[in-house]
Amino acid sequence: MKTVGLRTGDERAGRVAGAGSASADAALGGGGNTRAAIVQLLLEEGPITANAIGNKLGLAPAGVRRHLEALIDSGRARASRSAPWQQKGRGRPAKQYQLTAAGRGALGHAYDDLAGAALRQLQEIGGEQAVTEFARRRARSIVAGIEPVAAHTAQQTEVKADEIAAAFTDAGFAATTRKVGVGVQICQHHCPVWHVAEEFPQLCAAELEALRELLGTHVQRLATIANGDCACTTHVPLSVRPDTRTETSPQSVARPAAVRTNDSGRGVE
């Protein structure tokens, strides 16, 4: 998995220690900068193991687990066993941790109510088409400056997916790419407007449309945070296939097993 545009452990710890960390710490049950840094990793790279968190932040696994258990107790995080293909070596599969919807919500969405009210007003004045056009302009502004893929080769498509992920990371989506079989997946581990997107799915649809325009192929949305998944996951085939421009609703597509969790909280043993 390529962590396109994500910060290093030192940069992440420095960022969460800034002006916004105090409110985040309070919302997530305290614990200071260490807790906030762990939360940031769960946000950007979850599901992730305690050992991986410790390695990235230079912390002892036992200390990391104490913070994780506190987050689980407060309902802000959950744990599940790694899938068989993720397991390295013998022994029981390691636990992987990620934020819950409550955990994401605790990070703050100060402008959600205002944005929702503005879109409802826009819808009342201009109808559905006005909301759709707004969503399209917003999505295109995120990837502004990125040229459509020049050649439909696996290498060019993968490079373009990395560019798109970097643009979404700059816009606050904590995006990464990962090679999966004969395709590449763009994973947005955070959505700064997911509360609003629950009410206005045009925002998600417009992002997908923008990706299709840039990649020139039939990309498919596999999961969305607004639909209750742990990440927004978009599959991009690396084989040449002309774009059919067929719209796919986030609510109607299948979800990959890789982003599902079977259990939550302390129930995983």
Tags for this entry?
269 residues, alpha+beta, four-stranded antiparallel sheet, two-stranded antiparallel sheet, 10 helices, globular, disordered C terminus
Layout of secondary structure:
Elements lengths: L8 H8 L4 H7 L4 H14 L4 H8 L3 H13 L3 E5 L13 E5 L1 H5 L6 H31 L11 H17 L4 E6 L2 E6 L5 H6 L2 H14 L4 E4 L8 E6 L32
Antiparallel strand pairs: 1-2, 3-4, 4-6, 5-6
Helix pairs in contact: 1-3, 2-3, 4-5, 7-10
Write up this protein.
The protein is an alpha+beta fold and 269 residues long. The protein has ten helices and six strands, in the order αααααββαααββααββ. The protein has helices spanning 9-16, 21-27, 32-45, 50-57, 61-73, 101-105, 112-142, 154-170, 194-199, 202-215, and strands at 77-81, 95-99, 175-180, 183-188, 220-223, 232-237. Strands 3-4-6-5 form a four-stranded antiparallel beta sheet, covered by helices on one side. Strand 5 and strand 6 (232-237) form a beta hairpin. The longest helix has 31 residues, at 112-142. The two termini are 27 Å apart. The model is unreliable at 5-30 and 243-269 (pLDDT under 50).
Outline = globular
Q: Taking all residues together, what is the mean pLDDT?
A: 77
Backbone CA Rg: 19 Å
Helix content: 40-55%
- In the predicted model, the low-confidence regions spanning at least 5 consecutive residues are 5-30, 243-269
Beta strand %? 5-15%
Derived from helix and strand composition plus strand pairing, the structural class reads alpha+beta
Order of strands in the sheet with the most strands? 3-4-6-5
Count helical runs. 10
Biggest pleated-sheet summary: 4 strands, antiparallel
| Helix-strand string | HHHHHEEHHHEEHHEE
Query: What is the CA–CA distance across the termini?
Result: 27 Å
